Amino acid sequence: MDDNPTTAREQLAKEKVCLPRGRAALWLDSMGAREVSMSDDDTVHYEGSSGGWGSLKGITRIFGREWNKPTVMETLARQNKPGGFMCVSCAWTKPADYHTFEFCENGAKATLWELTTRRCTPDFFASHTVSELQTWKDYDLEQQGRLTHPMRYDRNSDHYVACTWEEAFAAIAAELRALDPTSVVFYASGRASLETAYCYALFARLYGSNNLPDSSNMCHETTSVGLKKVIGASVGTCVYDDFSKCDAIFFFGQNTGSNSPRFLHPLQDAVKRGCKIVTFNPVREKGLESFINPQNPLEMLTGRETQISDQYLQVRAGGDIAALMGLCKHVLAKDDEARAQGRSVLDRDFIQQHTYGFEAFEKAARETPWSAIVEESGLTQQALEQAAQIYVEAERVIGIYGMGLTQQVNGADNIGMLVNLLLLKGNIGRDGTGISPVRGHSNVQGQRTVGISEKPELVPLDKLAAMYGFDPPRKKGVNTVEACEGIQDGSIRAFIGLGGNFVRAIPERDAMETAWKRMRLTVQIATKLNRSHLINGEVAYLLPCLGRTERDKQQSGPQTVTMEDSLSCIHGSIGKREPASEHLLSELAIVAGLAKATLPPNQNVHWDDWTGDYGKVRDLIEETYPDQFHAFNKRMFTPGGFYRGNSARERIWKTESGKAEFTVPTSLSAAGFADRAGRYRLITLRSNDQFNTTIYGYEDRLRGVSGTRDVLLISPDEMRSAGLEEGQIVALVSDADDGVHRRVDGLKVLPFDLPAGCVAGYYPELNPLIPLSHHDKLSKTPASKAVPVRIIT
Ligand SMILES: Nc1nc2c(c(=O)[nH]1)N[C@H]1C(S)=C(S)[C@@H](COP(=O)(O)OP(=O)(O)OC[C@H]3O[C@@H](n4cnc5c(=O)[nH]c(N)nc54)[C@H](O)[C@@H]3O)O[C@H]1N2
Ligand SMILES: Nc1nc2c(c(=O)[nH]1)N[C@H]1C(S)=C(S)[C@@H](COP(=O)(O)OP(=O)(O)OC[C@H]3O[C@@H](n4cnc5c(=O)[nH]c(N)nc54)[C@H](O)[C@@H]3O)O[C@H]1N2
Ligand SMILES: [Mo]
Questions:
Q1: Which of 38, 371, 426, 739 would you call most buried, defined as having the most Cβ atoms within 10 angstroms of its Cβ?
Q2: Nearest ligand to the CA atom of 499
Q3: Same domain, yes or no: 527 and 621
């Protein structure tokens, strides 16, 4: 290894990244490299792959001097390890054999965001009216730092004013008792722990409501419904080990480099042992092209990058059903050829024994003409055949996907098509194979597992009835879209948010903000100020909570919480940092406080005991879900987490037919609308500098977009044919045929490598353009990845 200091310095100089002295050396030290000396003005310019120096610079740029303090480094070193705390960013798994620093650029940003020394105090609220704060940008709101006191909205003065916890609980309880329980929404963004989530769902049901939508209603609900329909499991079938055994990975619409960067490590390992990766994405995402592992000194110093994708297919937004149909068509054609020679490409035994509906699907695939596939996918027949050939030749294949497949009008068909492809060769339920949706929030999957669901059939209501001696509500609750409809038509009167930034994350934002204010009660449990806290019902409270990195001391001592990752492993997490304010309560204590104040006494329900010792809540979770959570308290610190199992992985298919189901898609287009002149398919993207509605900064370094988020990305060809110039400011308007005027102004035109007919821009800025009715047909997940728009100059 060429690790002499000169090389490192030269490399830094060559790349021109600004790294104040000590910071890079500190990092290199922590990675076990020789100490490196640098002068103050060593500069490195990021270019090329994801990871690498750019990720270090990304952290430095945002957090400056805050980030390499010993206490911060100590906290980061505990991230995602047994006995440490689980990252507050994404849900990617935390492996048993972790790295020295098992965190990525964006995980570090999320942690540092929570550890900030800035405070958003009652004085701040005294200096600004809520109406004034409504004009601030998301970035500026969260920049105020951590919320410190429970606050009540005072309508007369238009200010938030501090209140006591007792006052807040009593006032909210009085409101709730006066409302019809079915008119109250209990929303959860996917961060709160399994313990809090269990208590929150129990509170809602004891109160009389199944209105428990969570953020997965806006992302992987398509999976929960669509995947369950075809393989009988609502979550992915892969375990970590599968990534070291597969021969090919087919990757659809998931941006690993920004949204689950630690996943790049097993991907890089897979590539190095010869696994082929085929990517379908309209955008050429850096992380899926090449990667320098920031944990690897050799790669960092030499700039040696690993090419990730063997093939990168820039499918049209909404073109995946067609692309997958093309792949399947080629597999069938190759099977015909093989059969003529007495061989088989398909796994016929598997198909016969384990699947349903093959003949109908085969017929549909054979009858779908290549011309339609090419037109709808925007890909050539040759490119699709080449990709399909990798599938044909691979013994073990994994299918991975994210929002590119789920946030579509025919999103469930997308997932059905990916399953069709995998089933053709028995690529589910064998080592090294499977389907792996990459989940979003760090505990979004787990919240569903322990009862946060608007669908009563997914919850063991009889068990809850027996345990707590009550009659749980049996009527279906509202999901996110239905909650929005209810807020608009007045049937929803109150909204409680356990984290999140609902008003900013949902579609149809302009109309929703107006309707929102007509609600009687809005309550937000949060760590930082965001726009949803400023659009208030008649009575409004803002309740500040501890973050996951912070010490949570209760009657029995410091508490542990647990979460479930994308691969269904459960991990314990302990926060050790000093809380941001002495007035904060834990999320569980807030939920328990609200519940206790609202509900009549119940001899089987002991909110105070549970708050005093979260281990007792884990016992209740175990009692409610014994198959998945047996010996919960004992197993929660298992390195790598404990696996809660998946029937489809065992080839037990809990579907209607009792088999894994081939399905014929309802349409070849996932977008769900026809093309016409002047209509574009808008993709709403996350930048590398954001976590959902939390904006860390204005650099999207992996896409080369800098300084602003108000952009319209469009291909040079489309730019020319629309008569646009680079840098020109334009507006986007909705092109949905529903007569509603939706518009976003002030977007700067930037040429960008995108397929014909597609444009892109950032979420949440462009959310006013998404009609509420524009969602996956089966699950009602908003279809944010192909939105019909027109450009106005
Ligand atoms: N740093 C960071 N990490 C995050 C988040 C964050 O905001 N920031 N958010 C978290 C959450 S809640 C979630 S749900 C996940 C989201 O993570 P992802 O699933 O990666 O979601 P997106 O970034 O919205 O979009 C994914 C990709 O879909 C592509 N795409 C768009 N349309 C199509 C299409 O029609 N077909 C195909 N094949 N691809 C398409 C886009 O180009 C993009 O690369 O990440 C989680 N992790
Ligand atoms: N156009 C478009 N819209 C989308 C998407 C898209 O791709 N395109 N993606 C959708 C997806 S996948 C999702 S998941 C949703 C996200 O929707 P949400 O989950 O509702 O939104 P977030 O931005 O994650 O919420 C951020 C806020 O959470 C609070 N918070 C942070 N940490 C904690 C904590 O530990 N506890 C508590 N109580 N609060 C905390 C802070 O106040 C912060 O401001 O947006 C959806 N909307
Ligand atoms: Mo999400």
A1: 426
A2: 2
A3: yes
Instruction: Please give, one letter per residue, the 3-state secondary structure of 286-345.
Output: HHHHEEECCCCHHHHHHCCCEECCCEEECCCCCCHHHHHHHHHHHHHHHHHHHHHCCCCC
The residue contributing the CA closest to ligand 1 atom 19 is 402
Question: The CATH number of the domain where 521 resides is what?
Answer: 3.40.50.740
The reply to whether 245 and 147 lie within a common domain is no
Say if 408 falls within a structural domain.
yes
pTM score: 0.92
Beta carbons of 278 and 249 less than 8 angstroms apart: yes
Domain match, 53 and 131 both: no
Ligand 2, pocket-test mutation among 189, 258, 776, most atoms within 8 A of CB: 189
| Whether 506 and 576 share a structural domain | yes
User: In whole numbers, what is the pLDDT of the chain averaged over residues?
Assistant: 90
Index of the ligand 1 atom closest to the CA of residue 106: 1
The boundaries of the domain holding residue 309 are: 221-438
What confidence tens digit (pLDDT) does each residue in 668-708 have?
Answer: 999 999 999 999 999 999 998 999 999 999 989 889 899 99
Residue nearest atom 16 in ligand 1 by C-alpha distance:
440
End-to-end CA distance of the chain: 55
Kindly report the protein residue whose alpha carbon is nearest to atom 35 of ligand 2.
547
Any idea which residue has 């809602």 for tokens? 204
Rounded Cα distance between 609 and 587, Å, is 15
Contact call for residues 23 and 65 (beta carbons, < 8 A): no
- Which ligand is closest to the CA of 585, given by its number? 2
Residue minimizing CA distance to atom 10 of ligand 2: 218
The secondary structure of residue 585, as a DSSP letter, is B
